[in-house]
Hints:
Largest sheet: none
Order of helices and strands: HHHHH
Number of helices: 5
Mean pLDDT: 76
Number of strands: 0
Distance between the termini: 44 Å
Low-confidence stretches: 131-142
Oligomer: single chain
Strand content: under 5%
Radius of gyration: 17 Å
Amino acid sequence: MSAGTTGFLFAPFSIGVVGGSRLGTRLLDRLSGRWVAFGAFGVAAISGTGLGGASVAAKNAGTAVVGETDRGIASGLLNTAPQLGSALGTAVISTVALGSVTDLPSGIFVALGAAVVGTAATLGLSGPRVTAGTAHWERGQP
Length: 142
């Protein structure tokens, strides 16, 4: 496809991310950060709308648990980590997809399985638990 056609086809995804970010911000006023993140990650498997909501919930949680003087550093780390993760994840998943089987469609399913297993393995490595008693982000407050 041409660059213009590709950009046009990615537009709905990008609009979904922006819409999800706005929705995620509004939902944080009504629901706990954990529920917003849980729902958003579920939707992210389907569309860009979930990606936007999950990003808002993650940034809110990540900056709420640090002191005022460290919020800039935390924000920088929260913005860098997805970029680094995407780069490394793409390298690993494409290596698995192309090196594990002889045909690409089967390799994609093997890589998808590896991504699901890797994601499930990291669920227990989330660090300190944030609760309503330790941070205000649970109620959507900064």
